[in-house]
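Extended Data, panel c. Modelled sequence:
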Amino acid sequence: MNVPALPSRLLSVTALKKSVPGGRILFEGLDLAVRAGEFVAIMGESGAGKSTLLNLIAGLDVPDSGRIDIAEVAIDSLDDDARTKLRRKSIGFVFQAFHVLPHLTLAQNIALPLVLQHVPGAEATAQASAMLASVGMPGREHDFPRQLSGGELQRVAIARAIVHRPSLILADEPTGNLDPETAARILDLFVAQIRDAGAAVLLVTHSQLAASSADRTLRLTRNGLVPQHAG
């Protein structure tokens, strides 16, 4: 069976506006296009709305105005169920705070996106085990999050975000809680995994190190996104 090719412009954001309670505008007139396989980093001051932008793209928040298309589907045209299905199938989210579930084993945490897509249990477990090995943690399937270091938790979070091979990965400060040496190792691992998957990636960060791995870097301002120049 032929699988339709992804559109070259996997993510398209047009004239996006978002304000916070009280009326302060975070950003407006925001445009962004990300191609399949492209890695884009977004930097900006604290409070500029970087995490909010990721939540809007993921359909977890609603903009004041503007349009967001993922794989040529306008997410504001979808009802809640359809938006949830799109998120589960097409989006992987790496959170700064990991959001690994403490009562589940590592394999169960990683397999969760597959389970939500009704992948059979044995197959989901096998894929989770393979992904654990690919992030340098073979044989740790039955460990629990409380047994892990911060760097190991971030590896699990990355594995969970990409196990279902999403077409779009959103990463919110994925190295923000890590020491520089661990952050560099995790970043190399993250980049290797997403390049292998061919996913489009949008990463928000304060770290110039993290941004340096991207194909291009943008800065979020009140008037949208502008190119971030080195130095």
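The chain has one domain: 9-227. This feature is highlighted in the accompanying rendering.
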